[in-house]
Amino acid sequence: MMDNNSAQRLPGPQAGAVKFTMLLAGVVLLLMMIFGFVMRAAQGNLIDLDPAMFYQLLTAHGAGMVGTAGLTGAAILWYFMGRYVPLARGVFWAFLGLFLLGVVLILGAIFIGGYGGAWTFLFPLPANSGGVWGTDAAAAFLLGYVAIGVAFLLLYLEVGRKLIAAYGGIGGALAWPLVMSKGAAENAPPPAVVAAMATTIFNTIGTVVGAAVLASSLVNLYFPEFKVDALLAKNMIYFFGHVFINASIYMAVIAVYEIIPEYTGTPWKTSRIFAVAWSLVLLFVMAVYPHHLLQDTVMPAWSLAMGQIVSYLSGIPLLTVTAFSLIVYLRKADAMRWDLASALLVLGVAGWSVGSVPAIIDGMISVNKVMHNTQWVPGHFHIYLILGEVAMAFGFMMWLIGKPEHKAAGGFNWAAFSAYVLGGTGFTLMFLVSGALSVPRRWAVHAPEWVLQSQIATGFALLVIVGAAMFVLRYLLGLKHSAGR
Amino acid sequence: MPIQSGVLLISLVLMAVVAGFFISAVRASRKPDTGAPREAVRTRFIYALLAVGVIVTAVSLRPWPHAISAANGPSATVNVTGAMWYWEIDRATVPLGVPVTFNARTTDVTHGFGVMDSQDRLLFQTQAMPGYVNQVEHVFRQPGVYRVVCMEYCGVAHHAMTNEFTVAAAN
Q: How far is Cα A437 from Cα A479, in angstroms, rounded to an integer?
């Protein structure tokens, strides 16, 4: 049983497989960003785009971004858990194979079958397209999700069982002895293990719930007499969707816990407050999902109140533990070494923290009544994806390839980082402003008075793409020229 | 000031404060130990956030935001039904200054019943979900034409799913 923060690290995490996965993810992220750029350009009347194609791109962008965020989070989780427990190499390849099978099914459903039911597959929209897509296209899309879900379950099964065996059970891996003041901090598992255990638990539960509603929707597609309660399906979909996208961020932050100490010179240790925070995160991530249903007034009032309250509470572990600790470590550092990896990882935590503000405010029922499904919503989640999870993923990629060897790399990196941050900030602020002006989200055609905001956002989107393309290029060159990690 | 403008303003200020802490820490990271906040600061921060949360929760949930007032005085009921891709509204004119309850239904997929004023400012919304009737109440303070839009993605003509009604003083 491994039982302390400084447990001896195992050699040889699957660096090759993880590097390959991150390359795939980087390219897909770029492609999905281009889809987003095209949608904003269409809303800004800068290009002509058929609404059916707009909604197909919307579906691909949503599913692709959420899936890729999950993929990068899983690769980070796998890489760093490989330092602490011996993981079966074949499981990661099976994970990646199933994930790619899912991608093929989803892309086929959208661009061959014409499916445009959004990534949320809100029941019964997949079965009721109004003649735009067929049953088989909807089924292919849902089966794509099933394949990706199975991939994640397989990965979590391997990580979960190894962590449980190595750290004396779920409670051991979550540092519960420390939570209950029965153990010393130096005997607690490292932060990455605590985060990995918590994420493994809640995303396994989320994925199983998602699988159940996917299976029900699939049966309903071919046997419409098999009725699914729309409210139940909606609860299950948002439980799954919320847990999955949050799990992506919570997995990616493992890279911060593991890499930032190399730059600050101070190890990130599991303290009692850290352990308590992660146990609360485990509960909050699952209990908060009714904040997606605040405008379903048939929901029990207590559940909506819980959605609002837990939405607020969820920000506390993030702000007072991960963000606060990172700020402490940065301030304590005598001479922090800044490069693209450390800058992107710190940006990731900052963006996640900043993005939690408009998210929490939208989680208030009275605010949600006038903000729900306006562009405020993509506003806040693009902050903690572009400037949060995706920044962490790019930071991990830069760390994987190691330090650039020549001086010119510094200028290139600074230009890439500046373009990404400026573009990401402007792009997401335009969403928030548009949301405050009641511009609905997911509209292929915008009213004339909303066009200017979309045009400005398109410019910022281009800047994000330029920055991201430079990251991917730097990664590719890094893979070619250096042995990296 | 519309609620949306207040929400935007408060959000931007708080976001700037959070970003400011990070920017300050990044600047300090290159210098020798600049005095990191102590654990006591973290504890106070947690208690402060909890205290703010209790106050905000109490203020924002009382009265209950989805309350439908008992029809003690004058009131009106409007039935709206969403379908791909149009809204049916069972009355063209809605009374001014009294509680109006909207019963939102759908005949096919989930839609979002949203009402915008003449400045295209969203006033309220509720979901229209298969098999359920969601209710939302609003008191209109200005006469005029109000636009009904769809606030939940429902397929290829989602953006075109609009209608309108008039608010006028009751005779």
A: 45
